[in-house]
């Protein structure tokens, strides 16, 4: 038996159609969802990711604005740009593409974004809301992963989830979201002794370390669900995940491919958050009219 492939690309297509319909309805109420992406510098991977965000926005009907600044931009200037969009009513989502140049403090930038427009779900206030299971902007990659697991009709409650990687944008939050779905969650990272002894216990294995071919057949339990978050560009130009796909395919029950897996769902959940923000703002408008 070979594993079934959970196609993020197909699921993303479906979700984008639903979002396009919602955008149509919002437009009838006079609200055009708007996303502003801010890029500092010319990191080649960032430019490629932003193109994906722009394409998805256009498909869905979200107004997309790119603000592109030189590498030399000062932190204060960037904070001022964010401040401007915090007050701009046509903007419902602000995303500052990471990584930022070393002279700009990521924390200060993230905290400057209004939590009401934080469509990345990176603001500490939204992270706190997520921790306590409140309805808020969820970080896009983790939220996309949960959608992918559910789309394959995989039960999460009671399962042992092992997360490899503990970044603030993927590893940590995906564990929290799956805990909120009643999984038993274990985190592994670079200081975990005997990694494969832990990963072999996973019913659902989520890998977000950013190293090509890091997880092999030896790490995977028979019939596990394997979610590969890695996007590693090889010297040949080929994109590959953190998991040796051919190994996982022989052992797992389900596996997400790279490309065409978690990446397209990340972008779709971003659009989902922009539409959610626009809907919230339409509701606030309605309430203020009624007052
Ligand atoms: N503020 C911020 N928010 C982010 O969400 C954010 C970020 N910064 N910095 C970089 C990471 C990375 N990321 C990806 C999104 C889509 C794909 C994606 O669609 N990948 C395609 C392939 C794309 C290609 O060929 O280059 C796929 O896997 O099929 C990958 C990676 C979002 N990020």
| Structure class | alpha/beta
Taken from the alpha-carbon principal axes, the silhouette is globular
Task: List all distinct small molecules, including ions and cofactors, that are bound in this structure.
Answer: 5,10-Methenyltetrahydrofolate
The mean pLDDT is: 97
Quickly give the CATH architecture of the largest domain. 3-Layer(aba) Sandwich
What about the largest sheet?
6 strands, parallel
Portion in helices: 40-55%
Q: Can you tell me the number of structural domains?
A: 2
Count of alpha and pi helical runs? 10
Low-confidence stretches: none
Catalytic activity: (6R)-5,10-methylene-5,6,7,8-tetrahydrofolate + NADP(+) = (6R)-5,10-methenyltetrahydrofolate + NADPH; (6R)-5,10-methenyltetrahydrofolate + H2O = (6R)-10-formyltetrahydrofolate + H(+)
Protein name: Bifunctional protein FolD
Function: Catalyzes the oxidation of 5,10-methylenetetrahydrofolate to 5,10-methenyltetrahydrofolate and then the hydrolysis of 5,10-methenyltetrahydrofolate to 10-formyltetrahydrofolate.
GO molecular function, one term: methylenetetrahydrofolate dehydrogenase (NADP+) activity
């Amino acid at each position: 038996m070979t594993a079934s492939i959970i196609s993020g690309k197909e699921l993303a297509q479906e979700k984008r159609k639903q979002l396009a319909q919602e955008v149509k309805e919002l437009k009838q109420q006079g609200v055009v969802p708007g996303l502003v992406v801010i890029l500092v510098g010319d990191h080649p991977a960032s430019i490629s990711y932003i193109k994906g965000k722009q394409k998805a926005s256009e498909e869905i009907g979200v107004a997309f604005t790119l603000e592109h600044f030189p590498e030399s931009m000062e932190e204060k200037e960037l904070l001022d740009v964010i401040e401007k969009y915090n007050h701009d009513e046509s903007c419902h989502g602000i995303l500052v593409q990471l990584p930022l140049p070393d002279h700009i403090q990521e924390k200060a930038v993230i905290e400057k974004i209004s939590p009401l427009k934080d469509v990345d779900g990176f603001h500490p206030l939204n992270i706190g809301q997520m921790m306590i299971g409140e309805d808020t902007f969820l970080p896009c990659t983790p939220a996309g992963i949960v959608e992918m697991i559910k789309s394959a009709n995989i039960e999460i409650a009671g399962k042992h989830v092992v997360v490899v990687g503990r970044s603030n944008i993927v590893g940590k939050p995906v564990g929290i979201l799956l805990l909120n779905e009643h999984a038993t969650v274990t985190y592994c990272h670079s200081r975990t002794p005997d990694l494969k002894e832990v990963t072999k216990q996973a019913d659902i294995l989520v890998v977000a370390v950013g190293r090509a071919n890091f997880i092999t057949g030896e790490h995977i339990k028979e019939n596990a669900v394997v979610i590969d978050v890695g996007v590693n560009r090889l010297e040949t130009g080929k994109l590959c995940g953190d998991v040796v796909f051919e190994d996982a395919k022989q052992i797992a029950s389900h596996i997400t491919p790279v490309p065409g897996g978690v990446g397209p769902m990340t972008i779709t959940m971003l659009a989902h958050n922009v539409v959610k923000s626009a809907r919230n703002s339409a509701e606030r408008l309605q309430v203020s009219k009624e007052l």
